[in-house]
């Protein structure tokens, strides 16, 4: 029997942002914005984020518009988007979860999960469960990604 992680519609991984939840797929966009911001100078352009995520520019524009309405990003047409404090906080929590899962699997079993696998698992686990994984590994970040550039973290650099 193979187990399958639930899709966005049924995932228990949605995190409240004050108005509604941030789905698994929406979280990927926030994490992508964070990673590109740490790698360069904000704002991040729609085309750049689309290429990073492997999605269409139209999808990025639609998602960014929704994030802006919810106060997760500040967006200036033709200039790009920047995470707000609330958006950055959510993205840093999601990245911490992903990183913790990746490090745990790699250090305890030698299994190297793909980013998308670790992200989904990290979002499905409770915060207490992710913190428990930290106890098995010497995780430098606690509760959120604390890096200020991609150069400081081998996980973000990939």
Automatic annotation (TrEMBL):
One of its GO terms (molecular function) is DNA binding. Gene3D superfamilies: Winged helix-like DNA-binding domain superfamily/Winged helix DNA-binding domain. It comes from the Archaea. It holds the Pfam family Fe_dep_repress. SMART domains: HTH_DTXR. Residues 43-84 form the HTH dtxR-type domain. InterPro entries: DtxR_MntR_Metal-Reg, HTH_DTXR, Iron_dep_repressor, WH-like_DNA-bd_sf, WH_DNA-bd_sf. PANTHER family: IRON (METAL) DEPENDENT REPRESSOR, DTXR FAMILY (PTHR33238), IRON-DEPENDENT TRANSCRIPTIONAL REGULATOR (PTHR33238:SF7). This is Iron dependent repressor. It comes from Natronobacterium gregoryi (strain ATCC 43098 / DSM 3393 / CCM 3738 / CIP 104747 / IAM 13177 / JCM 8860 / NBRC 102187 / NCIMB 2189 / SP2).
